[in-house]
Records
---
Amino acid sequence: MYIKDYVEATYATLVKQPGTNTALASLQRYLSKRGLTKLYPAILRGLAEKIRRKQVSTLPVVMVAREADLKRHEIEIVQALSKLTSGGEHEVRIDKTMIGGFVIKNRDTRIDRSYKNTLLHAYHRLTDRV
Amino acid sequence: MSTIIERIKKELEAIETTTATEEIGTVIAVGDGVAEIEGIKDARMMEMVLFDDGEGKSLKESMEHTSVLFGLVLNLEEESVKVVVLGDGARVREGMLVRRTGKLLSIPVGKNIVGRVVNPLGEILDGKGAITAERDMPIERVAYGVMERSAVNEPIHTGIKAIDAMIPIGRGQRELIIGDRATGKTVVAIDTIINQKYEPKETRPICIYVAVGQKDSKTARIVRELEEHGAMEYTIVVATSAADPSPLQFLAPFAGAAIGEFFMEQGMDALIVYDDLSKHAVAYRQMSLLLRRPPGREAYPGDIFYLHSRLLERAAKLSEELGGGSLTALPIIETQEGDVSAYIPTNVISITDGQIFLETDLFNKGIRPALNVGISVSRVGSSAQTKAMKKVSGKIRLELAQFRELEAFMQFAGDLDEDTKKRIESGRRYTELLKQDQHATMPFQKQVISIFAANAGILDGAPIAQVRVIEQEFLALIERDKAVFEKQIETERAISDEAAAELTQMIEEFKKTYAHLYA
């Protein structure tokens, strides 16, 4: 088994039976029985990373270049948010590199109406890079 | 200038104002050109994804990269997908966003791709400006089925006498060129491409040379040679060097096949050279091991046979209803110490419709092309051979077969009877006649005349050293005095009885006039 498989298995155990100590103690026992105790730190690191990724905010994120853009694109943002989520709650982040427009991210989907990416795509197409 | 302004205007008009959603993922691990991505749940096998390395960077910084970084989905796993990076893997970072493109990997092809050098993604390598794409051809696709094909019935002339006479190749066939390193495998393939210049423009096949993991210097030399012989006019080079990432090397033959199919589907003929599939198998093995697919024999993945069979199955002769186009494949395999029973050679031998064996011993003896005509075969090509060639090649095949049997007795030449000695001498003359220099391909009609003359006894009594001189002199004589014969064979593809009689007469006269060559 790869470290990744141990991470997945331990994570699944943790989800099913909350109580970190029991799950980790059985993992330690299992590894020492097979002489694989060396893997324990790496598995723990992988597990921590997986938990961190799973705990990332589930709220949609609206990114704009400046706060004024929230007002400017209000209607479009509301429309876009309704596509991605049923509730209106969202987090707002400022990213000056976007130049203008907005980006909405919700888990594995994104609506990108930033000026930066629009210009970048046009540049790539004009220079035959796409 | 106005064209650029027009293009910019079009781009501005095309800027999307809709709020379309796109599926994104995040790189969770990356190494050795393989990235593991979490998020893009609906991704499909062989789909292209785009690495978005512009997040958090200014527009100016994002524009600094000379190319867009694509990835190819190759493993769909429970929690994530594994993607091979088609470019500089060092640009991929953990946490980087990845966008689905929704497009299966394809290559933009247009008629003006002919004469160009591109990489497997269709990116230009020769700096000669953009290629106008007419269609996006999928790199992976299912080959044409039985009902969509017709029998191989037209020859593709290599310009190499030994091959055209005894191992004929038909349009739509797959003929393997196999041999150790430095036995002239690439030369046979390149000569075949060069020889297509003798074909009439309307039936001339478009040639595609696919360099898989070759040295850049070798590819550059080949392109230069093709240019010098005027062959780049109808040739496309798909190049990947040994320094390119393994996914690009893996894709190169498939990209070449996609280009060939573009022309085949337009009713044209195409010829594709895969140089070579041994390196292709090695690249695929590397990629598969990095993707943690289970290794099999010689550490190749279990589907290595399927990889090559689905690639070579794309060579086809289409039915008349589908335009009658064809794609002929000349895959090359490099053996180690002449071992044709290794894994990849046996696989490809069993997939193809015949093999051309090149041997180091013959090469070192000065027999070039170093073709072993005894074990080389063409399974479907004979039905595509022209009447003229069929008529003359029967005898040469028989003579050489007898010669090979008697070859072992050659060292006891003194004790042999006259008949055996005669057969050995004849075999040696035929062997000499079949020698050809690099890039000295011979049009089919000249080959027919040359072999006809040998069968009619023009070489009888000639010293071995003079065989090729006699051949050249006789062909020059025909060109000077009876060019009509060549024209007739070229157009009618057969030798009439009258022409045969007249040629025999000319041979008799030639032997008298050029008696000094027989001394």
---
Amino acid sequence: MSWIKTLLTYEKAPGAWSWGLHRITGLGLMFYLYLHIFALTALQEGPEAFNAEMELFKSPVFMLLEWALFGLVLFHSFNGFRIVLIDLAQGAKYHKKMLYWLTGISIALFAGMGYVIFSGVFH
Amino acid sequence: MELTVRIQRYDPEKDSAPHFENYKLENVNKTDRILDLLNRIKWEIDGGLTYRRSCTHGICGSDAVKINGRNRLACSVLVQDLKISKSTIQIEPIPALPLEKDLLVDMSSFFEKYEIVKPYLIPKDAPPERERYQTNEDAELLFESAKCIQCGSCSTSCPSLWVNENYIGPAAFLKAYRFIFDTRDDATAERLDLIDTTDGLWRCHTIFNCVEACPKEIDITWHISQLKKAALRREI
């Protein structure tokens, strides 16, 4: 496990940050998928149980978690597209530029989604 | 200026583990190379300090070390090139290779990876009477990859190698590219077989540490992406 120390002490350039974030957001999304499937098992217990659970998801804590989930999806999908362009097109020459753009667009969409979730426009 | 050089020291006959030692240097010029600082410490303070260097002009590639957290060539980096905090420069050996003494590592496994990719021309035909002809355009495909001086900065900067010591690594891939995209070479399929393995190409996760570390500014990840495409194309 000596690689952990090497990883922590080695200088991180934008490429390394994007790789690390891709791994972390990937794990986050996997955790969400487990939670999602677990939550759906309430359907087996009938409509009341499921509706009660849905009420729980309307609480502010879960709204915050949903917003965070949207952030994970944004970065992971955009960066996944960036990796495809690096591997299968000429993306290696523009990888930093692509990272800055996708980060910028992600932040803008994240902020927009924050407005949609918390302003209650869809309620 | 006055500078503290913090160096990782390790003597296998005395120490159980590596440790850091600080060396204070006066009258350091900002145009001094990091290798000049190492030489001053070895010549003026502690003759036991062990590190590799040969040509001292960025050609032989023997003095790759980790300077302020990143792999670089000690002879190609000036004091003014570094972001220096608290007047301290930290020097460690390049990671992921067996440590022999101080800044000296055993490069054997690094060069064994070169042998895996068969770093020599494999032509179908016997040598012609004169040279094997190449157009300028064909030769240009190889120029950047041929700049490699085999210093090991790239491969040992790669997290994929830190985790898996069998990973072939960027330096050997670059050499594979140099022959796979050489119009005079006829062993493309064999070469792709050698790198399209579980310890091969697909362990490159486009982290770009190799590109950041390369003292010759070779876009190694771009070259690896060309190999990935070549490996994919033959499956279609």
---
Amino acid sequence: MSLHAVGLTKHFPGGGTPAVDNVTFDAPDGKITTLLGPSGSGKSTVLRLIAGLELPDRGMLRLGDVDLASVAVQERGVGFVFQSYALFKHMTVRENITFGLAVRRMPRREQADRVAAMIELVQLQDLADRFPAQLSGGQRQRVAFARALAIEPRLLLLDEPFAALDARVRVELREWLRRLHDERHVTTILVTHDQSEAMELSEHVVVMHEGRVEQAGPPREVYERPASPFVASFVGGATLLKGRAQAGRAAVSTFNVAAPGAADGADVSAYVRPHDVRVTKPATDPATENDTLGVKLARVERLTFLGGTVKLALILPDGAPMTVHMPAAEVAAHGITEGDRVLVDLAEAKVFIGDYSI
Amino acid sequence: MSAGGPARAHRLRDRAARTFLVGSACGWVGLLVLAPLAAILYGAFREGPARFFSSLLGDGGRHALLLTIALAALAAVVNGVFGTLIAWVLVRERFRGRALLNSLVDLPFAISPVIIGFALLLVLGPHGWLGPLVEASGTKIVFAWPAMAIATIFVSIPFVIREVALVLEQADLDQEQAAYTLGAGAFTTFIKVTLPNIRWGLVYGVLLTTARSLGEFGAVLVVSGGIANATETGTLFVFRSLDDRRDLAAYSMSVALAGLSLALLLAMEFVKRRVRRNSGAAR
């Protein structure tokens, strides 16, 4: 069932600015929608408002055709997976999964059948009579999913479900969740601060910042056409360079980039993504540390191998830092090492006019 | 070698200091706790087990012992329920006057039990504020078991409140919220999720309450009148026996009460371990 949030606003007592400020978005039926943002952006509060664990000061929530304003948390039929898993630690795996069915007074035989199906779904057949303390993090997480799904929720809410897991388990569970979703198509809202998680899992991304929605759309669109400097830097991990426009171009740091529509003399911010930079190693003039044609060169501060790609921390000629990702093979082919002088070539930069706030 | 010299001297000095510390701690406890205990134990059984039992159970002793146990059990149940309720309100609710309530809760510890008994007498006694009301209802409160029960409950309630508040503060709110999202109401959630999480803290608080109730003297003395075979508890029995120079009866009741307390102490050690293990295995 699709969820519509309109103008959601929530203040917490003692907090000056609202935790959630006029948030409007849709979570389409049968899809995974991600609320993506840094900690403190209000994304978890939005999730708790949808679940009914908090009440909004203003705004409307509609699930399918039902206005949720007068529906108590117990009646909303949402499955909630907490970051801490929140398993009942005095109950076994089976008892945890049964809990929601028992309080709904489902007939016992049906309960047992449903629980058995859930245990099979999350592949915990051998561990059904263990207590949460006897399980690994990944197993606990799967119990939390099974418990939330057992009540056949109309909406599945996931609050940073993979944050407490180690990297390998996180990737496995992500793929498992993706497959699970493709089978069951439960409308899902996922809260995360991890852009790769958002990209991999969701069909719809809502980027949040300081309690507000910055941009909403398909992941690819959000990545390729960031609507604000914040989205460019948070989703793309882009480096910010500042400068001034002149005749449709702008000089930012030591680069000259296209700045269509910028008035002469306007302040511009250019965002350069780590992948949109090419670094080459020219012949260096030892006297000036420029290249042989006299072009100023950047310095490689640090190389970090991330598997297939290499992260280069550069210091530009004017002293500004820049992060670049390049294929490891390309770095090796150029023979780039730490301390080298390199030529930086911008393939593309996203330019925002007049925004110096970030 | 040259490096080993000072380190070794240091260790020797360390060991001497430790021996001194451990020795004085053991000696102190022995002197203050074990010696008196041994003395009453010796006194109680000096004339043989038969005389121990006859002097313990004779002359109102049996009634006193049973009354003490009944009052302690009542205090344990009442304080278990209302102590948990008050602890819940203090930890979970935010209201004006919460800080005041929080400090009032410890009042029974801070004030002498004799004064508490006296205060109860002033409220519930024949000439007290509620005196006419009590008289109209036709029940006897002061100098009867109801006032003794109220006094016992009053002096021992802080134990449950403090112990339960402690575990409630550490309890995982996410678990309760998970129960709500799964469709459980507030009451079901408390019984099925919150209570199991705080149960060892509650049991510990109730055991402390019981131990305190068994030993209560001052408040009960004031409100009961201490009439043998009627309103006399174990401690009052010891007091009267000493007064009447019936030392053997005093020794015997003391041993019986100390034995009950010791059993509770052992139970508390067991529970404390469970509490620690439970909070260690959080999540």
---
Amino acid sequence: MSSEWPLWEIFIRGQHGLNHRHVGSLHAPDAEMAIRHARDVYTRRNEGVSIWAVKSDDIVASAPSEKGPLFDPSNSKVYRHPTFFDIPDEAGHM
Amino acid sequence: MYAQMVKTEAKRVKSREEMTPEEAAFQDRIEAGEKIEPKDWMPEGYRRTLIRQIGQHAHSEIVGQLPEGNWITRAPTLERKAILLAKVQDEAGHGLYLYSAAETLGVSRDALIAKLHDGSMKYSSIFNYPTLTWADIGAVGWLVDGAAIMNQVPLQRTSYGPYSRAMIRICKEESFHQRQGYDILIKMCLKGTPAQKAMAQDALNRFWYPSLMMFGPSDKDSVHSAQSMAWKIKINTNDELRQKFVDQTVPQAEYLGLTVPDPDLTWNEDKGGYDFTEPDWAEFYAVLAGNGPCNRERMAARVAAWEDGAWFREGLMAHARKAAKRGVAAE
């Protein structure tokens, strides 16, 4: 049986109040070791206050070929941005 | 440069007319500065060349721990020992980032390591030179990491997303490596005894030409280099980077009061850079072929570490499987 440790994706919360962000991946035999390795590799210079580790196999990703159908429709919906609307100066800050 | 003489399989760079529509669209994306991500379509040659290049780079980081590891237990003070330990740990991390980047191209880390161990993949020639004195640790940080930075800073802009992101992370840490090396030499040359300064000069004498070799032989006429540059997995020619390295390093040697071991080194006003003697390329090819001072020792140490650690890797996997099974049974 292969003894290669599974791959994990590592997410770090840089500061309190921020989202966890993907920083990279690593190999570890189990969740506990994944956290330990992530701490040793990705937080050696005060980069984080919290770690998430997710097995790479468990990540579901959109396919590059779906890019058009998924993301193009929002191009034409400029009214979703606040800058679409002109508010008169007299109305004050909004 | 931690990747030397990476082959691309190209006999010549394809003209636009020769490209398939997919290849042309791919080349357009590269030229527009877009990043290529793992699931995107890419030419097989691009994928395989990147695996070779990133793999060689990763191997260099890992084998590169050995010459410095030699001095962890011999560092002159506790502080120097802690610093060196932190640097060698960084190198292990750099190897990990790069192996991870290679893995996104569909190759396993174990497969890459097996190729290193059977000699079918290489690592940088520089790590086949011994670190005989403490001054060598200074010279390695200053010159070897300095040369690596020359190559890695432009590679942050490489076309392959995971490689680019690994390079950005690595470059943040490399600067610490080069400075710690130079700091060792400042201590020995400017605040040390004549014997310590002589030791630093000896280290420079031995590491100067091997450092110049790190960039590889001139590749201005190489088809592989042209293809890699078209793909933006190589940003500068070897000669450009070597020139930049010499121009940056000579004043640093002068500040230390050390003499670069090249009697023909002269400032060339016209080109705004130094003229210098090329390293002995016969020596470079001999080292790449496995006949440098330490090739056998380095590979023996790597293989022993891998084999001696097998029981531990397998033990942890066995434990993880058992724990997972228990977890399922408990539900």
